[in-house]
TrEMBL record, chains A, B:
Gene3D superfamilies: Probable inorganic polyphosphate/atp-NAD kinase, domain 1 (3.40.50.10330), Probable inorganic polyphosphate/atp-NAD kinase, domain 2 (2.60.200.30). One of its GO terms (cellular component) is mitochondrion. It is found in: Mitochondrion. It comes from the Eukaryota. Belongs to the NAD kinase family. The gene is nadk2. It catalyses: NAD(+) + ATP = ADP + NADP(+) + H(+). This is NAD kinase 2, mitochondrial. Its EC number is 2.7.1.23. It comes from Salvelinus namaycush (Lake trout).
Amino acid sequence: MTYRAFINFLCLGNRAVTILNRSSGHIQMGIRNIASQAESGFNPAKVAVVTKMTRYEFEQQRYRFSELSEEDLKQLLALKGSSYLGLLERHNIHTRNVEHIVESLQKEGMEVRVVKRGQYDEETVRWADAIISAGGDGTMLLVASKVFNKDQPVLGVNTDPERSEGHLCLPVRYTHAFPEALQKLRRGQFRWQWRQRIRLHLEGTGINPTPVDLHEQQLSLEQHNQAHRITLMEAQRSEACSLSKPYLLPVRGLNEIFIGESLSSRVKYKSFKPHLTLSLHRASYYEISVDDGPWEKQKSSGLSICTGTGSKAWSYNINKLVEQAVGEVLRIGKAQMGLDIPLSQELVEKVTDEYNKSLVFGPEEGRMIFSIREPIVNRVFSSSRQRGFANRVCVRSRCWDACMVVDGGTSFEFNDGAIATITMNEEDQLRTVLLEN
Amino acid sequence: MTYRAFINFLCLGNRAVTILNRSSGHIQMGIRNIASQAESGFNPAKVAVVTKMTRYEFEQQRYRFSELSEEDLKQLLALKGSSYLGLLERHNIHTRNVEHIVESLQKEGMEVRVVKRGQYDEETVRWADAIISAGGDGTMLLVASKVFNKDQPVLGVNTDPERSEGHLCLPVRYTHAFPEALQKLRRGQFRWQWRQRIRLHLEGTGINPTPVDLHEQQLSLEQHNQAHRITLMEAQRSEACSLSKPYLLPVRGLNEIFIGESLSSRVKYKSFKPHLTLSLHRASYYEISVDDGPWEKQKSSGLSICTGTGSKAWSYNINKLVEQAVGEVLRIGKAQMGLDIPLSQELVEKVTDEYNKSLVFGPEEGRMIFSIREPIVNRVFSSSRQRGFANRVCVRSRCWDACMVVDGGTSFEFNDGAIATITMNEEDQLRTVLLEN
C-alpha cells in the first residue's frame, strides 16, 4: 500500500478531534454560567459536591463483584489484617462530613448536586457554577482535571483530616465548621488563589491523543468487557498515529506531568494480571530541551515536570534529601576540605531544611520544575542537570512503550517518535480559594 | 461458612507446594551433573547457550501478530523514527556473536544447545552442566533466575558491547575472542566468583506464593487467551491466601527485591490497556524491621533491597547523588558554618564520587543494602534511616495491590497482611567466573 494510505489506515485523527471539541465545549458553556462571579465574592447558585470513594466502599464493591456476603467480607478483611469496623468508621466519618457540607450549602439557598467520583463528568461541570471536592487531594485532582474554565471556582474539603493531609483542601477546621467557611466566602473574606497549570502539545508519531482515565478505579462489568474487546490492531493504529502539527491535549496538569516506560504494552496481549505490568525500574530513553536549549539524551526512571502546586507533591519526594544523605555529604566535604570543625545534628537539620525548601515554589508562579528521576549515567548518557526551573520543556520520546501521565490520573501513549511541548498559560489557571485558618 | 472452611476455600496451598517440589527438583538433578566441577577448572560436557530477543525480533513478532508484511513493518518503524536497517544490523551483530560462541564451544568438543530466552526452562537447566547467557544483563538475570545449584556455573557474554554495558558479563573483548576465554577457563586461569543472592520467606495473609514471570515479553496467542480466562474469584482467592508458617519462595534475587504498589489490580478487571496500569507515584505503605530492630511505619515510592551485585544497578540509581545536589548541599553548609573558602568544581566532583562509591559493595559480601525510595515524611510517617546495610530485613505489607518483584523478572502479590523476611544464605550463591581482561 502507499505511504499516505498507510498513515490514514493507521490514524485515529477523528477521535482526537472529537475530544478537542468536547473540551473546548465546556469552556464556552462554563463562561455563560459563571463570568458574573469573577468580580464579586463566592455566590454560586448551583454547586456540585464530588465525593471520594472510601476504602470501605472500594472493598465492598470489590467483593460484591465476587458475590461474597457482608459476613464473608468481614472475615476476608480480618484475614488481611484490616478491620471491617475500622473501615466502616472512616467511611461514616466521611459520610457525615459530606452531609454537613451539603446541608450548609442548602441552608444558604444553593442548589446542590452530590456526585460520586465515579459519576463525575463533563455534564456535571457544565451544570455547576462551582464545584466542591469532598475527599482528599486525589479527589481534588480528579475534580480539577475536568475544569477548563478559569472562572469556575473549585474548592476542596478534606473529609477525613485525621488520615490525609489535604494540601489542596481548605484548612481542616472548616471540615467541621463549613457554615463559617461559607459565610467568609460569601462576604468575600478570602482571596482567590489562581493555581497555574501545565498544558501539553503533542506532535510527531507514535502517539495517541486519546486520553485514558486512571482516576477511576472501578468500572461496571459491561465496561470491563468492552475494554477487553480492544483489538491489537487498534493498539497498533493508535501507536503509529502521526500528527503533522502540534496538538493541544484536552487536559491541564495541576500537580505534574510524568513521562515513563510502562513495559506493559509488551504484555498487554498476554494477560492483564497486575504483576505483569509492574516494571518500575525499566529505564526510559528520551531527549530533552529546556527553554529552547540544546537537545540532551537522557536515560532515567522517568521525567517529572511539576507546577508550584506539584512542587510540594511527588516532585518534592523525587528531589528532597534526607538528613542521612546531607550529613554524609557534609562529612565527606569537611574531610576533603581538611576542616575539623564539629558537625552538629542541628547544622545537618538546618542544611537539609534549606535544601528542601529550595525545591518548593508558589502555586501561582508561571514556571515549572523538571526533574530527571534516578538518572542513569554511563558512557552513552550524561546527566548535566538533574533538575531545574523552566518555562518550556520539550521532550522527544525514544521509549518503546511509554506513557505521559497527568496528575497520576490521565495517561497518553508517548512512544518513539512522539514530541511533547510542555508549557504554562494564563488561560489554564485553576480558580481556588485561600481562606485563613 | 466457618472460618476454617473459608480459609481453605480461599487458599492455593497445593499450587504453592508444586512449585516448592519443582524448584528443589533441579537442585538434586543439578548436583549429580556438576558436583565434580566444583574443584577443577571449567570443563562442562553439556552447555546451554541462552540467547536474548533482539529489538528486531521483538518488532517482527509484534507486527506479525497483526499480520503486517515486512514492507509494512519497515514503514511502521520509519513512522516511529526507528530504522529497520539499523535494528536489522544490531540483530545480525548479535546473531554472529552467538554463532561465534557456539562454534568455539563445539570446537572444544562440548555438546551445545542454543535456547531462545522464551524457550529457556527448568528442563534446560537440568540438562546443562553450564549455562552461557548470550545477550546483556537482562538475559543474564533471566538465566540466573532458574539456577538453584551453586555448583552450576553461569557465564554471561555481551553480544552487543557497543550498545549495552553488561556488568554481569565477561569483559567485552572476549565477545569476539571467545576461544581465548574458553582456553583460560579450561586451564583454570580464572577465579570462580560466588555472587551472593537474596532469599525470600513469605508468611501471613494477602499473599500468593505463585510466581509470575515478567522476563518474558512475548507469549503465544494461546497463552494469551489462557491468561484472559483468569477469573476475578481466582484473583480474590490468591490475594487472601493465608500461610501459617514462613514459605521459602522458589526464586533467588541476584540484583534486588523491589516492593511497591501497582494500582493495577484495581483496574485488572477493567481493561488491560497499558496506561491503566501505570501509576508509578502511588505511595506504598508498609512496616519495616532491619536486623530484628523495631518495626517502623513507612510510606514511600517503594522499597529496594539489593545484593552487592545489585548495588551497582537500580539501587545505585535510587541512592546516588548528582554533582548538582552535592554542590548545593556544600554551598548551603558552607554558608551555615560561616566559612568563605572557595568551593571548586573539582571538590564537588570528589565529594560526589566518594559519596556514590559508598553505595557500592562486593558481589560476594553476605550483606544487603535496603533503600526506602522517595520516602514520604509527614506528621504520620517518619523516615529515620533512608538506607543502610542489613543482614535481615522484614517487611509487613500495608499495601492494597502491591507486588514484590525479584530482579525485575519474577513477581509475587504482596498485599495487606503479608510479611516478607529477606535474608542471604551461602547455599544460594550463583557461581560465575572472574576472567582478567
